[in-house]
Amino acid sequence: QVQLVESGGGLVQAGGSLRLSCAASGSTFSINAMGWYRQAPGKQRELVARITSGGSTNYADSVKGRFTISRDNAKNTVFLQMNSLKPEDTAVYYCNADLYLGSIYLRNAYWGQGTQVTVSV
Length: 121
What we know:
This protein is mainly β. The protein has no helices and 11 strands. The chain has strands spanning 2-7, 10-13, 18-26, 31-39, 46-51, 57-59, 67-72, 77-82, 91-101, 104-111, 115-120. Strands 2, 4, 5, 6, 9, 10 and 11 form a 7-stranded mixed sheet that branches. It has a 4-stranded antiparallel sheet with strand order 1-3-8-7, with no helix packed on it. A hairpin with a 6-residue loop joins β4 (31-39) and β5. It starts with a strand and ends with a strand.
């Protein structure tokens, strides 16, 4: 089992910055890629950014150049630095983790409880 706990959400004005953190605990040796998703009211959950165990990253087009995902493997923590925030970034942000269990790869195997990010005009 893996537990993911997000922190760092809050209320910020447009143009401001926030840094989200997600700490993993439990069977962290099996964690491979990690990512951040978000879900706004009335919308589907969408991928924001993803980082592999080797540090390769990919981003949603809507956040490229503004958000940066990073991870500290020694501390089993993934971060999302969000700059130049816009009202349309308002959502609940979820951390997730893929698991690699030898011959089995489980994408999006575990999710955190989510943290609210609200960007005011």
